[in-house]
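@channel sequence for tomorrow's demo:
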Amino acid sequence: MKLRNLDLSPDPVNEEHQELGLPPVEEAVLHPGDHPVLKLFAWLAAFMLLSAVGYLLLRFFNFSGSVASAESLVMDALTSKVFWSAVLVGVVAQTIDGALGMAYGITSNTFLLASGISPAIATASVHIAEVFTTGVSGLSHIRMKNVNPKLFFRLLIPGLIGAISGAYFVSSIDGDVLKPYISGYLVIMGLYLVSKIFHHYQPTQDEPKHVAKLALFGGFVDSVGGGGWGPVVTTTLIGSGHDPRMTIGSVNFAEFFLTFGSAIAFSVLVGSGPWPIVVGLVLGGVFAAPFAALLTRKVHAKTLLIMVGVLISIVSAANFYNAIK
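structure tokens (generated this afternoon):
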């Protein structure tokens, strides 16, 4: 899960992450935040997160009060290839995200599309599942005083507008028409991850520029492509030299609210309920943390960026080819 307390100690792993503009290694959550407005948003986020858990359970069990019906739905899910495919995708995506600090949505959407799921259902599933991971992540950053209120509010509204607009766009177009474009976007994002090995981080104290435009674009492509908020917004701000700890915390906390907004939009706009896929993604993500920790210890960040970027690009290129042939 994206539970992040940023350990900024000067060890080799953190030095490599800083050079590449990636999030630092993580430790346990220790300290509460003390900004009154952020505390209000933290309580709001906690309430929204609990509501999302209840809503997911109700939708998964089809609002049924019958124990027999609930058992039948569970058995149908456990014997479903789609459910177990989603569990596997959740494990892979969260492992990558835990090791790199980003790319959960891009990885999830890439492999869901490869399994034959339509673009609208795939990106809806990813965003509904991300409500839980981004909620935990955002609350942890509030507790750790990693959120810059000014940057958070500059990201929030444009990001929400972009995310909801993207959800409407991807839900309103035929999946067969849209799939080549989304696959092409994911190829580009995979290559973008690879390109970060050539990046050298240079700190700056300048105020971030064009944050609203960046958030609007990041929110839109995140909803349309199933991922991209982290690679677009976080890496752009960090890559331009801004403080990694406050940037990552602010972007992650804003991400929860825009993910929640796009999840609501997808729930309304997508006709076929993606709930078994969502539950599979969540369950897969829950079990992925040890694998992420192992990757962080055993594989250099540059090597992992190349592996993940190339894998996403190849799978997305195959999806693109299958969509146009």
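heads up for whoever presents: The two ends are 37 Å apart (CA to CA).
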